[in-house]
Design goal:
This protein is of the alpha/beta class and 506 residues long. Helix content is 23%, strand content 24%. Strands 8-20-18-6-7-21 form a 6-stranded mixed beta sheet.
Amino acid sequence: MASNKDILEAQRYNRRRLITSFVAGSPEGKEVEPQAPTRPFLIGAALAVVMLLVSVGLRFLYPGADTKQSAGLAVVSSSGARYYLQDGQWHPISNRTSARLLGDSSTGTMKISDADLAKYSQGQALGIADAPEDVPSDKNHMTADWTSCAIAERTFTWIGNSSLLKSNGLRAARSAYVAPVGGTDSYIVSGSTKFRIPAAAGETVARLRLGSSPISVNPNWISLFDDGPDLATWTVENPGGPMDSYPQNNNSLRQGSIIAVKDTGSTTYYVLVSTGHAYPLSPLAAALYEGSPLAPNGTIETALTIQPGAFAQAFTIAKTDVEPSPFPKEWAALEGLYPFDSDSTTSGSDDDNPKVVRVRDQVPCATLEQGKSDSSGAVTTQQSSTTAHATLTVMSQEGARRSTWNLDPTAATPASYSAGSALVKSGYGTLAQGSTNGQTETPLTFVSDLGLRHSLGDDQKDTLQRLGWGTDYVQTVPEQWLELIPSGVELSNRAARREVASGGKS
């Protein structure tokens, strides 16, 4: 007789055979040796643990509505509608920037269902309706990459789009001959400097041999460049006056006398100054020398002409690095450009890099260049500015149209253009501290990808903290550049909460 133990063991064996038959079947008609159920049990338990962890992870990444959570941004899964949870109420909100200003930089986003939405009462809309959708969280998206071009007598500015502009032909320019709309003066711009040609000095244009009328530009665009000395006629301080010393064998010469040294194929001009030394004149300085009848040989046309050997024996050349210059030294920036009506160069293509931008299918531009950064990090007090200045660049009208995403290449004005327009790369912006005369001042300004500049409110430190911005996000931008950008709404906690009280739009 089988014992109870034997009967129980036989039942267990039959159960294992049955489980094995269901799980493994009978490959090739052979019965598989029954296995203990431990392995399937362990596998099932492991899968259950994995599913539990995935569920917990999803709740962490996309938390649902939590009655214990006092504030946060929520997105309804079915519709994409956004709400801000505050004090047990869902408030419709139009952008993430407002949510960050109402909360702080750590404010998260919840995924909720329509059922979650129904658990709370709905309050009035809040936030800043005209704020940007979001603002940069990465300081690398805070850029001082600015370029502004004079298009159709107006100004168009690109921010964070240098690669777009370069791909459409933006390049360095040697100089541009321009005139502000509504003004009487004209300017030659070279490098970072503008040189005014006073309207009253009409003969100056002829002396410079500019050869054509200037390109009309918006006054705001010309203001981006540093002021240089005027391009006007000049003479020595005391024409015809005595000198400290005189050339050998010629005591008749006086201050303001011109010496022309003729060598093979070239002539170099010198003017006698108070020391009695011969100060060398650049071709531009010689062209603008007014001269005086009070000095013998006192004009370029009546210059005393001698050979190089005789000049070396009789005259002492002024040390230009020591003796004061009788004409503005800043004119040296224009060396190699005079005469301006000739585009002949010693090398390179004249078409690609002409002396003067003046052809109507070219657009003069200003590109903001940054100097060395200031490591002080201060943003609330007046401080020394980094050297940020405009540099002259140029691109074709066609390239400018492509850069503004204009679909009509025959249009005189870009289709996307509006007065004071700025095209900011999506997701980028500039947290700017304006500078004037080499000094930076508060308050800070944020230029968003809406192409607008925004105040940060009275408590800008609070705004910086809520948006997660540090002092290393700040870029120095000259005030005249910021004035190109239209004003937008204030970005601050106070502005966002004001919407709760009024229920209106900013």
